[in-house]
């Protein structure tokens, strides 16, 4: 056999007598199993040693029957106590390896000591006592091999240290019986070693498979945790999502109900976010959402002593669950802090943009008795804030509850209403600012319900939008308005309001086009008024609809300019003919320099862009004179006339003609 191969086999054989250090998992498993069985090994040694010593106590010297067994017993007992302590200790891999190696080397002197003691006793006994020594060594070595099977190297050392001298010693006695016992012990020990190798291999495989199984379980658990996280996380802002929000709401509501304390739900809507998407693109809009979410989260995290769960519900809407028995003052303070942070400027590359936010809160148990109803109350508070207190915080109250009931009644009656008979039309003049001649009429709808009486458009128009009836209502009203306009002089125009649902519907404005063509009224005499809010609802689709109406010859007016998002990009990007300035800037135009400057700026803008400027809400001569000086083109308001029914328009135009003719005659005279 080549020397290299011999060295290789010798090295492999030597590795059998060492504790492997390249598999920490196997070493730790060995240590755990070994520490449980080692006390059994020392029990076998101690009990068998005492039995043999007792047999020789009267025939052998005292140092062999008392002192040596006592030393060996104390050594075995101390090692037993040491191993029992290891079960309660948490050790590192390096410490475990060091202890196993120490045990491995201690096996050599301990095995040799017990073997030498046995051989020293043997000559002093009679045949029975000598047989007991042979039996003692055979049984003990088999028990030790069995107990050391988790530490293969130690078991092999014991086998060599005990069995080899054992066989040689008893063969040297020449006694056939003892020689047979030695051979028998050698065969059994060989079988035990074979079992030891098989068991050790299976044990190592089991540890490896368990490690693999644990790794698979860990990977599965990690995947499950990640899936759970993703299922409850908003991918854009990395905030909890709508699903997580409602789970938190349900849990917090149940806890508050059990403890009989308050819990609040809040809904936040960003005011002015859609124009950011329109003006700067969705990538900038996403960055604004991320930054706004970060700011609100910081406010919520620092709002002690109350715990606030914060989530993104979708779009530019966020949700809050306020735990810890909050009151109205706490909610208003939280809303103020959130609003202050959201209002801070957002610097995005070269663009600077600002936002505000409207917030609606509802408090348990004052507002609702279920989590779902509490959320609905918060949603209505937000709706109220956006309509009447934009940029403010609104807490659900008994007044809002009455509004909800009233809204429900209006919606139910609107579903069964006969638009043809219950809807009335009134018309308010739009007057040329310089000549004071009526240039057109804006048509306004009034609902005369058989049960509720006269219902304001501010109530039934939003209700029709909510329940999906605004488009059929628009079509009925447009048919009637066009029929009335056909009776007017050819120079009088009709202004008709369209909602966001009219200009942003998926099927487009084809029904409105069909109505116009069927009416016989030239499209050039029709102005469609569209609010800023309608435009921002879906700017792309609204832009397409407006372009189609413009191509027919219809005029386009941007209504209520200055009260919505006031995005000048709408003025630049839409084919507008008129801008209607909201009445809120007119009421104090002669007292408030700010209002005066705003209208002056708007008239200048319209003049530069060759767009007509229409001002609403004019009620006094002083206001009219100021608006004339500022260059306004058209006036609308009670100063000239309140909205009137269709049959009063002829008299109004006749009176106006007589008035203006008389004025002109006086001027000529």
Question: Helical percent range?
Answer: 55-70%
Query: Please, how many helices?
Result: 24
State the low-pLDDT regions, or none: 9-17, 664-669
Count all strands and give the number. 17
State the end-to-end CA separation: 143 Å
Rg from alpha-carbon coordinates: 48 Å
Strand order of the largest sheet: 8-9-11-12-13-14-15-16
Strand content: 5-15%
Structural class: alpha/beta
Largest sheet: 8 strands, mixed, barrel
Mind explaining what this structure looks like?
It is a single chain. The protein is built from 24 helices and 17 strands. The relative contact order is 0.05. The radius of gyration is 48 Å and the shape is rod-shaped. The strands form three sheets. Strands 8-9-11-12-13-14-15-16 form an eight-stranded mixed beta barrel, surrounded by four helices. The protein has a five-stranded mixed beta sheet with strand order 2-3-1-6-7, with helices on both faces. The longest helix has 56 residues, at 176-231. By secondary structure, the chain is an alpha/beta fold. Helices cover 62% and strands 14% of the residues.
Topology:
Blueprint: H1 3-15, H2 24-55, H3 62-86, H4 93-121, H5 127-147, H6 152-172, H7 176-231, H8 242-259, E1 263-271, H9 273-280, H10 282-301, E2 308-314, E3 317-322, H11 328-343, E4 346-348, E5 351-353, E6 356-364, H12 371-388, E7 393-395, H13 398-415, H14 419-422, E8 423-432, E9 438-449, E10 453-455, H15 457-466, H16 470-485, E11 493-498, H17 500-503, H18 510-519, E12 526-531, H19 532-537, H20 539-552, E13 555-561, H21 568-573, E14 578-581, H22 593-609, E15 612-615, H23 621-630, E16 634-635, E17 644-645, H24 649-668
Parallel strand pairs: 6-7, 9-11, 11-12, 12-13, 13-14, 14-15, 15-16
Antiparallel strand pairs: 1-3, 1-6, 2-3, 4-5, 8-9, 8-16, 8-17, 9-10
Helix pairs in contact: 2-3, 2-4, 2-5, 3-4, 4-6, 5-6, 5-7, 6-7, 9-10, 10-11, 13-15, 16-18
